[in-house]
Amino acid sequence: MSEKLSKKQQAWLDFYCSVSKMNATDAARRAGYKDPYKSGFENSKKLQQQISQRMKELQEKSGASIMSQQELAEFFSNVTMGKETEKVVANTGKVVEVPVSMKDRIKTAELLGKSYGMFVDKKEVSGNLDIEIGMGEYDED
Question: Most buried among 17, 56, 116, 137, using CB within 10 Å?
Answer without folding.
Answer: 17
